[in-house]
Write a structure and sequence with these properties.
Blueprint lengths: L4 E2 L7 H9 L2 H12 L5 H7 L4 H13 L3 E4 L2 E4 L1 H4 L2 H14 L9 E4 L4 E2 L2 E5 L11 E5 L5 H4 L20 H7 L2 H11 L5 H8 L3 H13 L3 E5 L7 E5 L1 H4 L2 H14 E2 L6 E5 L8 E5 L11 E5 L2 E4 L3
Parallel strand pairs: 1-10
Antiparallel strand pairs: 2-3, 4-5, 4-13, 6-12, 7-11, 8-9, 13-14
Helix pairs in contact: 1-13, 6-13, 9-10
Pfam families: HxlR (PF01638)
Protein name: HxlR family transcriptional regulator
GO molecular function: DNA binding
């Protein structure tokens, strides 16, 4: 397994870099098919979905530059860094299957080979094995973690358009992390922001952008708005059950990013599991047998077809 990439001092931190990768549908689609179907050749991806040569070339080159894929003898193979994206993909699939209504069958089922049952992943704390959701985890910025450094630079909405989207992907997930301001608002909500001014200050975005993102998150039922009891003309925005359930996606993405992209000053975000008081590192468990999941013990099930998600 290759080592971590050391980021530039004072530049985008691990959170920003990670979102620039996992906030792109085509990138996730390429990694997904490498994990589940073993694709390695350019033409295999080109024939697998409605992707253009230009988009495929750009994404493959970027994945190689980020040491997620390596290229040799015309083949693209996942690195250790790339294979370790499976918990992020698994968490995204599970959230979409549970919360995006109506289900349309585009996402596969998941089977744990150790117990033979289909499952949904449950998140736990590596240190104590205790269950963990957003209410059990406290987060604070580390030495490289302030708001400007944590937001991806530029406009990062990179979704496919006009119906030409890859199959088995995650439209509402991209609505939450496929745009730099959506990502910033989501992070602010998970770190405790509830009022318009708090979101505006932490995001560093114009008021019109903040209002648009809040409206979108409310439409998606990720946030719920209610009158502020102190100022009835102001609103308070709180995460719904659907919004809180997105936390495993955020936690596994942060865990992956801080493992593989490090800033000289130190980590961008420090998470603590309130039940045991130790540093929180998320681990996924099988909802049926409770055993900790590993990439090689998870099968993607498409009808009668079963394929491994990771080696």
């Amino acid at each position: 397994m290759s080592g971590a990439t050391v980021l530039e001092p004072g530049g985008p931190n691990a959170i920003a870099v990670t979102n620039g990768i996992v906030g792109d549908e085509w990138t996730l689609w390429i990694v997904q098919l490498a994990l589940t179907d073993g694709l390695t050749l350019y033409n295999e991806w080109l024939n697998a979905g409605p992707i253009s040569n230009a988009v495929l070339s750009a994404r493959l080159n970027r994945l190689v530059q980020n040491d997620i894929l390596t290229r040799s003898d015309r083949r693209y193979r996942l690195t250790g860094r790339g294979r370790q994206l499976w918990p992020v993909l698994l968490s995204m699939w599970a959230w979409e299957q549970r919360w995006v209504d109506p289900p349309d069958g585009r996402l596969p089922g998941m089977r744990h080979t150790r117990c033979g049952r289909t499952f949904s992943p449950l998140m736990s704390c590596e240190a104590c094995d205790g269950a963990a959701d957003v209410r059990d985890v406290r987060g604070r910025f580390g030495p490289s973690g302030d708001w400007p450094r944590s937001i991806p630079t530029g406009v990062t909405r990179r979704r496919a358009h006009t119906g030409h989207r890859p199959a088995e992907l995650i439209p509402q997930t991209m609505s939450l992390i496929g745009n730099r301001w959506s990502t910033a608002l989501l992070g602010a909500a998970f770190l405790g922001a509830t009022r318009f001014g708090e979101f505006e200050q932490r995001m560093g975005a114009p008021p019109t952008v903040v209002a648009d993102r809040l409206r979108t998150f409310c439409d998606l039922q990720v946030l719920a708005a209610a009158p502020n009891p102190e100022r009835r003309d102001w609103m308070v925005y709180r995460l719904t059950a659907k919004g809180r359930a997105f936390f495993p996606v955020v936690a596994t993405a942060i865990e992956w990013g801080q493992r593989w992209y490090t800033a000289p000053e130190g980590p961008a975000l420090r998470l603590t599991h309130t039940q045991c008081g130790r540093a929180f590192h998320p681990r996924l468990r099988c909802s049926d047998c409770g055993e900790r999941l590993r990439g090689a013990s998870v099968q993607v099930v498409r009808g009668r077809d079963e394929r491994l998600t990771a080696g």
